[in-house]
Design brief:
heterodimer; A: alpha+beta; Ubiquitin-like (UB roll); Fumarate Reductase Iron-sulfur Protein, Chain B, domain 2; five-stranded mixed beta sheet; two-stranded antiparallel ribbon; 9 helices; 7 strands; 14% strand; B: alpha/beta; Flavocytochrome C3, Chain A, domain 1; Methane Monooxygenase Hydroxylase, Chain G, domain 1; six-stranded antiparallel beta sheet; 16 helices; globular
Chain lengths: 236, 551
């Protein structure tokens, strides 16, 4: 069986983007990442000077977040999605880079802003961590965040450089809040996540690590209510 | 204030950077991608420390003895003594910075069994210890990045070392996307670039650890030790993209290895090694699987695979401690480990050998240090599970401490070397750019052949004839690379010749060690020979050839 692969390409940020289609008739129980590697091998084998498709890749098993891209309109880790699962209804696969970040080349994007804002928000512990075993499971889950950017891709509220920083930063804030008694993270959360989030919860659907995002943010919201309650009791 | 250049931002690089800024140094932390992408996040099993909380009378001395025995005494005993001594302190530090270790019923860091150690000594964070540790250390680094004390250069690769006289003076860096080059002068350089997976192609590790830096350092006169010591993890599975690891924790919590013999499951490890069973050190388990499949021809359907069975364990244990195993099996193999055994075979997982360092993580070049998988000191001929995260963190600390002791440098001389070398690097780049239209056929074939050649000659069992053929072929390939061209990517182009040189170092080391020890098993020299070879192989590149000595 031959399938058609459409890939949005762009040599670099300064060049125009274009779509390129490939016919693929190789093994189908392969991940999208392996599919792209196979297309590249065929290209290099022909040796007609065509530029291989660039994408970021490190662990190839869903643990590092490097290879996030949009496949058939859904952000995924390319190493975790299999072609045979996709072509059952339609013999066509369409791939484009994450759209909220500047393109570096083809499917590789510049996600540096995700990392930079976490510095601005001072997302680190100032005091030794407090161990509360009741919090451990949620801390573990939110610490799994790969910083892949999938949640930001589907977020109706996120766009690059704006105040709202999205769930990748919120996961770190949740972890740090649970690990400390520091209110600073909560304040950042209110300003840069809570106020801007319209609760579409699209992020929850696409998180490749299945992080319980809803649970995490409701925990953060509860912490804020508790904070206010404590304030009232002190005032009384 | 000292300026230290740290190459690599996995656990070894980040811990080095943290230690350095805490002591007042300025750090430049260089890596091809963010730390979330580093191979360290793939470590699942755990980190060893003799915390002795399981009423088993564990001790630092026993951790030492197990590590040395596991490494067949090629480990640096002074380095290992320091490693095991600091292990409990490292766990406390990780707790303090917020690593979410799994806790026991009393709320203490839980410990479990790992291979080659009879005592429960492996601390873990669910099924993803490396990722959980990385998250905490990344947050800790962020503080110093915000303050400007750690300057991250992300997207940059190591190009070459600046060498002034007999001293390291910094490095030339290459930006992978833009081909921009820059030279950075530093009081010291710490290499923490990970293992050279790229020499073999498909391993269990990260694609980013391509082995370029190691090959380049070898070419520039840095000494390497025990390059022949390559760990085949006994339980890996084949997928179209790579080999994937089934964590040792699967055996740690009671997983069993078997093949079908005369219609019945035969638990060969338990029969051959009562006591440890499937939890013998990794080299022994891999060698046993090899024997079962090749000498006894009992592999699954005549293959190199045997069964790993966890289906008898309680579903809760599998859910909590082996969720990654479940995910790999269902996604890539269509196997349900709650009900069926997993077909596994040994695969390349870790390089015990690397840049030769002593207990202080110094190398043969002044002002150059190395830590983590790219360096050799702690693991000897075979690494114990749970000792790699420990080695990375301890190594980062020690390398940082040692690098702070270097004296003042001749900055003007260093700057001058930097300018000269940058000029040479730019000329090489221009030369590459000019040849853009040459065919790449040779390049693709050589890359493929290198992987096949290395898997063939440097397998679990090695023999003289095959090693000699590989040596000869590698030398020819080295000449062929001059004619083969890759015009799509300058860095990838440069990687090929560096990989071939490092491959030569590995093969020559394997040839010189005419005995069997740890991960190095020779069919033609099947015994361990302590009189001649209870020493490390030392590989240097001199006058266009690899010279091997033992010391």
């Amino acid at each position: 069986m031959s399938i058609r692969i459409n890939i949005k390409r762009q040599e670099n940020g300064a060049k125009e983007a274009y779509w390129q289609s490939f016919e693929y008739s190789g093994e189908l129980h392969v991940s999208i990442g392996t599919l792209i590697n196979n297309l590249n091998s065929e290209m290099l084998e022909k040796d007609e000077g065509e530029r291989p498709i660039r994408f970021d890749c490190s662990c190839e098993q869903g643990l590092c977040g490097a290879c996030a891209m949009v496949v058939n309109e859904k952000p995924v880790l390319s190493c975790q999605l299999f072609c045979d699962d996709l072509v059952q209804e339609n013999n066509e696969i369409t791939i484009h880079p994450l759209s909220k970040f500047p393109v570096i080349s083809d499917l590789a994007v510049d996600r540096s802003q995700m990392f930079e804002v976490m510095k601005d928000m001072k997302l680190w512990l100032e005091e030794p961590a407090k161990v509360r075993t009741a919090n451990l499971t949620l801390q573990y889950e939110v610490s799994q965040c790969l910083m892949c950017g999938s949640c930001l891709e589907v977020c109706p509220n996120y766009s690059l450089g704006e105040l709202f920083t999205g769930m990748s930063s919120a996961m770190s804030m949740t972890n740090l809040t649970l690990l400390s008694e520091d209110k600073a993270y909560k304040k950042q959360y209110t300003q840069r996540v809570y106020d801007g989030c319209s609760k579409s919860l699209a992020c929850q659907e696409v998180c490749p690590m299945d992080i319980p995002i809803v649970e995490a943010i409701s925990k953060m919201n509860r912490v804020s209510v508790w904070g206010m309650w404590n304030m009232f009791t002190k005032l009384r | 204030m000292k300026n230290i250049l740290v190459m690599g931002s996995g656990l070894a690089g980040m811990t080095a950077a943290l230690k350095l800024v805490e002591e007042g140094a300025a750090v430049t932390l260089v890596s091809p991608a963010y730390s979330e992408r580093a191979q360290s996040v793939m470590a699942m099993g755990g980190i060893n420390a003799a915390l002795n909380t399981k009423q088993e009378n564990d001790s630092v001395d026993e951790h030492f003895a197990d590590t040395m025995r596991g490494g067949s005494d090629l480990n640096d005993p002074e380095a290992v003594a320091n490693l095991v001594q600091r292990a409990p302190e490292i766990i406390r530090w990780l707790e303090e910075i917020g690593v979410n270790f799994t806790r026991d019923e009393k709320g203490r860091v839980d410990l479990r069994n790992f291979g080659g150690q009879k005592k429960k000594r492996t601390a873990y964070a669910g099924a993803r210890t490396g990722k959980q540790i990385a998250t905490a250390i990344i947050a800790k680094c962020r503080k110093y990045e915000a303050a400007g004390q750690i300057k991250r250069l992300t997207g940059w690769r190591f190009h070459s070392l600046l060498i002034e006289g007999q001293e390291c003076a910094g490095a030339v860096l290459l930006h992978e996307n833009t081909n921009e080059l820059q030279s950075l002068v530093a009081d010291a350089v710490i290499m923490a670039v990970g293992g050279p997976n790229g020499v073999f192609g498909k391993t269990t590790g990260s694609r980013l650890n391509d082995g370029y830096a190691a090959g380049m350092l070898l070419e520039q006169g840095v000494e390497f030790s025990n390059l022949e010591m390559i760990q085949y993890h006994p339980t890996t599975v084949h997928t179209p993209s790579k080999r994937m690891l089934i964590t040792e924790a699967a055996r740690g919590v009671g997983g069993r290895l078997y093949v079908i013999r005369e219609g019945q499951p035969w638990y060969f490890m338990e029969e051959w090694f009562p006591g440890y069973g499937a939890l013998m050190p990794r080299d022994v388990v891999s060698q046993s699987i090899y024997k079962v499949c090749n000498e006894m021809k009992l592999g699954i359907n005549g293959s190199q695979e045997v069964y790993l069975d966890v289906s008898h364990l309680s579903p809760e244990i599998i859910d909590v401690q082996l969720d990654e195993v479940v995910s790999i099996c269902s996604k890539f193999l269509n196997v349900n480990p709650y009900k069926e055994p997993i077909p596994v075979a040994p695969g390349i997982h870790y390089f015990m050998g690397g840049i030769k360092t002593d207990k202080d993580h110094t190398t043969n070049l002044a002002r150059l240090f190395a830590a983590g998988e790219c360096s050799a000191q702690y693991h000897g001929a075979n690494r114990l599970g749970g000792n790699s995260l420990l080695g990375a963190i301890c190594g980062g600390w020690v390398a940082a401490e040692s690098s702070l002791l270097v004296g003042p440098m001749d900055k003007a001389a260093a700057e001058k070397i930097g300018e000269q070398q940058l000029e040479t690097a730019n000329q090489e780049l221009q030369h590459w750019e000019k040849r853009a239209n040459t065919s790449i056929k040779g390049y693709v074939q050589i890359k493929q052949e290198l992987s096949e050649l290395m898997y063939g000659a440097m397998g679990i069992y090695r023999k003289e004839r095959q090693l000699l053929e590989a040596k000869k072929r590698l030398e020819e390939m080295n000449n062929d690379t001059a004619e083969s061209w890759y015009h799509h990517h300058f860095y990838e182009y440069k990687t090929l010749s560096a990989n071939i040189l490092l491959a030569r170092g590995m093969v020559e080391s394997a040839l010189a060690r005419k005995e069997s020890r740890g991960a190095h098993q020779r069919i033609d020299y099947s015994e361990k020979n302590d009189t001649q070879f209870k020493k490390s192989t030392n590989a240097v590149f001199l006058n266009n050839s690899i010279c091997i000595e033992f010391n």
